[in-house]
Amino acid sequence: MQPPLRSPPGRRFLTALPVFNEARHVEGVLDEVVRHAAEVLVVDDGSTDGTARILADRLERSGDIRVVRHPQNRGYGAALATAFREALAGGFDGLVTIDCDGQHQPRMIPDFIAAAAEGRADIVSGSRYLRAFEGDSLPPESRRRINATITAEINARFGFRLTDAFCGFKAYTRRALGALHVTETGYAMPLEVWAQASAAGLEVTEVPVPLLYLDLARSFGGALDDAETRLAYYRSVLDRAEAAALAAATRDG
Question: Is 162 helix (H, G, I), strand (E, B) or coil?
Answer without folding.
Answer: coil
